[in-house]
Amino acid sequence: MTIGLLVQRAADRFADRRAVQGPDGTRSFAELARRASGLARGLLSLGLSPGDRVLELLPNGCALVECDLALAIAGLVRVPLNPRLGPTEWERIADDCGARGLVYDTRFDQETESLRSGLRTVVPSRRFDDLIIGDSPVGDAVLDDVVGLAYSSGTTGKPKGARRTHRNRISSALAMTHEVLGGPPGADAVYLHAGPAIHTSGLFVLPFLMAGARQVFLDHADAHAILEAIDEHGVTHTALVPTMVNRLAEVADGTPLRMLAYAGAPMPSGQIRRASERLTPNLVQYYGLVEAMPPLTVLDAAEHARGLDGEPELLASAGRVCLAVDLQVVDEEGRRLPDGEPGEVVVRGDPVTPGYFDAEGRADLGKSFADGWLRTGDIGHIGAGGRLWLTDRKNDMIITGGYNVYPREVEDVIAGIDGIADASVVGLADPEWGQRLTAAYACAPGRRVEPEEVLRLCRAALPPHKRPKSALQVGSLPLNATGKISRREVLRRLEAGEAW
């Protein structure tokens, strides 16, 4: 099974059902397959060849799905660009991957002027109708053909693109279906893409296509727009980053969601309880990486319920390891550690990238591969029931007074304080301590928690070496391109003494 065959099978089975709808219209399953296949032919007719890298800069909508599928069918390599990154980062990615083409929305005309001038093939999405040629299948892709390059957010130095194959994407789609969704969604299911579909929300495109269920796309949606869409379209499933889940819980009072998934980071138990009470009790957390497509682990709705009803330690877990992967925790030399002992998480299996694009001779790629294993850079341990507990990122560790401190543990304590919405803990340079733990936090609308109270509660909940030395209340915490709190930007602002 390749992506092209998957799309055609969905068209044959579900034909006239609505497949996708967004600001740019609606497509049935048959229409989506016809347009994607025809667009694949059209792109190849412009002089592109299988294996060429094609940049994609499109907002949430039908055109994004059509382009994604068309590039896969044509044997072209999709390189999605995050609109939030901006022209400088787009051009750096284009240079790194040797892009030959660009498919873009004309709202980005001005920002892409320089980018477009250096590419041979440039296609605005409004030309899709003119480019569609025929509707028969295209190409003869195989499972291990590269179908995309995924560039991680927050990249420093030279960009790095993880190669994704048909095998990676279909393995992820099957695991999302059976591990996260709990089985194929029914014909009446409706998935809402409220976050960018080039990131975590996009992991649900293939599962819902395979199941013959409808997908609705929003562009730049806030919490109120998400709630309106849930009501208007009868939405049953969605996935959001924890920051947006928290914001949604601030303004909602119950939803009909059968599943609300979150990823990118665990949520503090207080926020999980509020989301369960104000949004839906059907919460699911999943974990993965750019280099190892989610889900690698899943904490399902039943485990969330147990965690809220007497087993709170479960809520700090990333959940059970999925069947599609082999996941272990190892020491610095790569030796497997006993359960309960912290170390670096390593993983192998069908969801794991075969490597970075053009990686030969580079020593700046961060994550490494050894004997088929991906060293993730995440620190954690395996505990009860074979579940994974993640401590933090290896590179985010703070060394203060000779002690190693992972900021997530401190952030969870602060974010669990009544009235606080988000928190970020970083290490500022300090002549006495090496690094001084400093907390920045944002309160829920209409609430205020004094810094002295935050420090007092941290003293009560944490050992001395993990207690922040100072705390700062800010209006909001900066987010990176994928909607997660950017510790790097928090640190920069604190070091620069900027007013927030």
UniProtKB/TrEMBL annotation:
Residues 409-484 form the AMP-binding enzyme C-terminal domain. InterPro entries: AMP-bd_C (IPR025110), AMP-bd_C_sf (IPR045851), AMP-binding_CS (IPR020845), AMP-dep_synth/lig_dom (IPR000873), ANL_N_sf (IPR042099), ATP-dep_AMP-bd_enzyme (IPR050237). It holds the Pfam family AMP-binding. SUPFAM superfamilies: Acetyl-CoA synthetase-like. Residues 8-357 form the AMP-dependent synthetase/ligase domain. This is AMP-binding protein. It comes from the Bacteria. Coiled coil: none annotated.
